TrEMBL record:
One Gene Ontology cellular component annotation held by this UniProt entry: membrane
Coiled coil: none
Keyword presence, Transmembrane helix: yes
Transmembrane segments: 23-50
Pfam families hit by this protein: ANF_receptor
Protein name: ABC transporter substrate-binding protein
Keyword field: Membrane, Transmembrane, Transmembrane helix
Keyword Transmembrane: yes
Principal location class: membrane
Residues covered by the Receptor ligand binding region domain: 127-461
Localization: Membrane
PANTHER family from the UniProt entry: HISTIDINE KINASE (PTHR30483:SF40), LEUCINE-SPECIFIC-BINDING PROTEIN (PTHR30483)
InterPro entries in the record: ANF_lig-bd_rcpt, BCAA_transport, Peripla_BP_I
Length: 485
């Protein structure tokens, strides 16, 4: 045990030097530094020297989980949804084939992204960031003289937990064991049982539900959980002089968790919180908001009558369905009279800018949104500029986290010397904390989540006849303070 500890300490010192040296560059000298670090640890010597064979098609038997709904009791009184294990034999061409030297020549990482659905623009941002990271990593591997190349296989989860599980099962059957994503906490919660049971590693760039902060599982998250974001939201609301808040939130793992955490944070500051409105994301997806805007207007009117419009705020915790909510809320004058507050689910949301009525409502209500802040460095500026060049808009921080995840996963796989989720799981926190990426230093806590972060504050503005997002302030977690620019 002592010998292992000493090796890891040597690795951490050497690895930091390598990372500092190659934050941008892909030079041969930097690549050589990476090889030296690997030799110090002594776990990937064989992998560096021996190229892996080509992939071979094969028939595999895999264990999958199916969701089953049963009605029991008299006259179907109770409906129970459970997950059962089934063994299925499938003929597939394995994407990942273990090489004789311990590593495949092609390292394949899965990515579960919402390319359609209520977070489609976030999914696109992450996809572009991942593609850039793959280019950078492969250039580094080539410059290093290493025989490996990286490929990320992307599947669209449609921002739906059940679809995300199906896609994970399909990719696992092809031999993929290590994944970026999924994007939402509802998806992560639905995949967690399957991932843990089958030892599949999931590294989410944006799942923030506090309930998923569980030590020693197969889930890592390169973002903080919402115990910090909730304090940021509450502090912004307090600084605006709001005394009464009416929340309306998405009824899923993420929305429920953030709503509760923010209510607790607001009440701790002496701000009164209405019971609010919890809506079904599935119902809203099918038919849009129906009774909710009118009910919200009634609640806000009652609060305005008691406290005055300047002391009342609306907290909305949602994804892209906020566009429909804003369009319908614009018909109620009282909802325009009060300030609105959002979250990381709507910060930098491109869908909001594309609907003029919704965008104007955001401006009229000074709609402000926090999202965890990346460290602003030369590295950050470079990656952001390259993503913007492709998508034409400011990327969210979670896309930058996805970029960092590619680097950390590949370097951890090389350090492990095998395409093995358990080995990568053990080493990943060490590699992460010695990594300065596009988001800055990646320090994970005991639950495998980013330990802390500040939060940037974003508002919609109109300039030259076009709507865009503007960074207007920052919440500093260490001091629990808000600075508006």
């Amino acid at each position: 045990m002592l010998q292992t500890t000493l090796k890891l300490n040597k690795y951490e010192r050497g690895y930091k030097e390598m990372k500092d040296g190659r934050i941008y560059g892909l030079s041969t000298a930097v690549a050589a530094a990476g090889i030296v670090v690997a030799l110090i640890l002594g776990v990937v010597i064989g992998a560096f020297a021996i190229p892996g064979p080509a992939a071979v098609p094969e028939v595999v038997t895999t264990t999958v989980f199916q969701t089953v709904t049963k009605t029991v009791g008299e006259e179907g009184a109770v409906t129970i949804t459970t997950t059962v294990r089934e063994t299925v034999t499938q003929t597939v061409e394995r994407t990942v084939t273990q090489a004789a030297g311990g590593l495949p020549d092609e390292i394949v990482i899965g990515a579960l992204l919402p390319l359609t659905g209520s977070l489609a623009s976030y999914g696109e941002n992450s996809r572009v960031a991942i593609e850039l990271a793959v280019q950078d990593v492969n250039a580094w591997l080539e410059a290093s003289g290493l025989p490996y190349r990286v490929r990320v296989e992307v599947e669209d989860t449609e921002t739906k937990p059940d679809v995300a599980l199906q896609k994970l099962q399909t990719m696992a059957a092809k031999g993929i064991k290590i994944f970026i994503g999924p994007q939402t906490s509802a998806e992560v919660r639905n995949l967690k049982g399957f991932a843990d049971s089958n030892k599949l590693l999931l590294v989410s760039q944006s799942s923030t539900a506090p309930e998923l902060a569980i030590p020693d599982d197969f889930i890592f998250r390169f973002c903080p959980d919402d115990t910090i974001q909730s304090k940021a939201i509450a502090k912004v609301i307090q600084q605006d002089g709001i005394k009464y808040v009416v929340p309306i939130w998405r009824g899923d793992a993420w929305g429920d968790g953030l709503d509760k955490a923010t209510k607790d944070a607001l009440e701790a500051l002496g701000i009164e919180v209405d019971e609010g409105i919890r809506y079904s994301p599935e119902d809203v997806e099918r038919k849009g908001f129906t009774a909710e805007p009118s009910l919200l207007a009634d609640k806000v009117q009652a609060a305005v009558d008691q406290y005055g419009a300047d002391a009342v705020g609306v907290l909305v915790i949602s994804f892209a369905e906020i566009v429909d909510l804003f369009v319908k809320a614009a018909d109620f004058e009282v909802l325009r009279q009060v300030r609105w507050y959002g979250s990381d689910g709507t910060a930098l949301l491109d869908e909001l800018l594309r609907e003029p009525v919704a965008a104007q409502f955001a401006i009229d209500t000074a709609f402000i949104n926090p999202i965890f802040a990346a460290t602003r460095s030369e590295k950050f500026e470079d990656v952001v500029a390259r993503i913007k060049a492709q998508i034409g808009r400011e990327p969210d921080t979670y896309a930058l986290a996805a970029y960092d995840e590619v680097w950390v996963l590949v370097e951890t796989i090389l350090m492990a010397g095998a395409y093995d989720a358990e080995a990568v799981k053990s080493l990943l926190p060490i590699v992460a904390r010695n990594t300065f990426g596009a988001t800055g230093w990646i320090i994970l806590n005991e639950a495998g989540d980013r330990a802390t972060a500040d939060y940037d504050l974003w508002r919609v503005v109109q300039e030259g006849g076009e709507f865009r997002w503007e960074r207007v302030g920052v919440y500093v977690a260490a001091g629990d303070t808000v600075n508006i620019f």
